[in-house]
Amino acid sequence: MTPLRNLAGLALLAAGAAFAQAPAKPQYGGTLNVGTVYVTRTALSWDGADWNWKFNHDAGQMYEQLFAADLSKAQRNGGKQAFAADAWVPADAMRGELAESWTWTDPLTLSVKLRKGIKFPAKEGVMAERELVADDVVYSYNRQDKSAKKIPTYFDHIDKVEATDKHTVVFRFKSFNAEWDYRWGWGYYSSVVPREVVEAGAGDWRKANGTGPFLLSNFVQGNANTYVKNPVYWDKESIGGQAYQLPFVDSITYRTIKDESSQLTALRTARLDILETIRWTSVDELKKNAPALKWKRFLATSANYLAMRVDQKPFDDIRVRRALNMAVNKQEVVKQFYGGNAELLSFPMSPAFDGYYEPLAAMPPEVKQLFTYDPEGAKKLLAEAGHAKGFSFKVQVCACEPNSMELLQMLAGYLQKVNVRMEIQSMEYAPFLSAMTSKTNAPGYYMSNGFTNPTTSLRKNFMSGQTWNAAQWADPKFDAQMDAIYAERDEPARQAKIKQATREILAAAPYIFMPTPYYYAAWWPWVKNYDGELFAGAARPGPIYARMWVDQELKKKMGF
């Protein structure tokens, strides 16, 4: 740091606090440099038909959806929503984005009216400027539905999607699905991409073009995504009773930084305005060296577990799976590894899922046993299963997750005490993800997996044949339970069914269930209209960034 910045560092806390109290009046211009919650992971695809979850995170700045989170319901605006879960938008916190209104005209027909006047900007070599129309929504849905990479059963509940006039889209259902809004509304695979982009080459980032607040201007694999303001963007934000055209900043850059120490240095020296994922071990030092930073603590957007392939020995035996859970001192992991900054039980239901989550204290004995350290009981179960001398197995893990890499070594130590040995294979994210999606993953697969939402968390992890089902769990009874859950229109009744299904899948122990840590987001005081919100849909921060502005005068006064 320069001497000026050293001097600023001594006075930043007081200065930042004083300026932060100034009346909030939006400013236009400037750039936001962001270390997102996925700061270690580069973009994997620019084509939504690839059905890659990260598409929504990277392309959601430019490709909009029918619905999005209603950020007026955020905690900073007096609401109850933190908007930190990766893909959870409760019904009372959802707004129309491209959709102006929507109505169930009968129990299996949803009519959606699109906003008029929303435009795709002109893109040289791709398309002329034109209005978004209902045919764009129909085209995008059909393309997703016909993709060979589609998640099995994802759109099976939909019979037909059709445009009945220029601004009306009608969804005709075969059967009700409780995730109707998530599946093709605000979810991972709900983006509206124009035909012209597809014909020009949707996988080429240079061809990308949508109705969103920002347009992709540059992409360097493994380094950065750069977005610039869409000059014909349609949406506005009401602040202090006045409507302001969005977005406020001229550009946003996602920085891809794999090394944790480099992330922290970039934040401390203000090369990052925001870093959305900071481990508890770094918080005290950052608060000491950069006291003006603003902070938000949140439960990790993904759960940690070791999936055991139940279609292979020895994990086809429930005694083995339960034994390995009992062999891990999970309370010690919370205390020693996370310094108390973790929840012992928060998967498959996140505590953020109000009305669906049950704490460990409410669980039946067979579930509580899995979270109670009992190495002798584990040895007994292993002996009953014919493994008195233990066994060894291969575990794959992503090198992109510092917590996973470190924690897996700790887990190996616990299992070794009951004569179970792990052969650890560290992989880069793309081949690691491919191993799971192609069902070629090792008998052990240690991963950090997004919570998503109450129904999806159960479906994607435990329904037969699902893409994210790394344990290859296949139980007709559970599948039938999930069918009944999806068909249930009454939310309290659905909540009760989900709680029961959660108890049963926990007791079956297809995973070694690990604690979920808390993380921190930190940002400089010149970043305004923000309080650590992460997602306004499924892993999609675009609407959040569009509403933030940079107090450039404050930034200069603070020495940056």
From TrEMBL:
One GO biological process term: peptide transport
Signal peptide annotation: 1-20
Keyword Signal set for record: yes
GO MF term set: peptide transmembrane transporter activity
The keyword Signal is annotated on this UniProt entry: yes
Boundaries of every Solute-binding protein family domain copy: 95-450
Protein origin, superkingdom: Bacteria
Keywords: Signal
Pfam family name, one: SBP_bac_5
Gene3D superfamilies given in the database record: Dipeptide-binding Protein, Domain 1, Dipeptide-binding Protein, Domain 3, Periplasmic binding protein-like II
Protein name: Peptide/nickel transport system substrate-binding protein
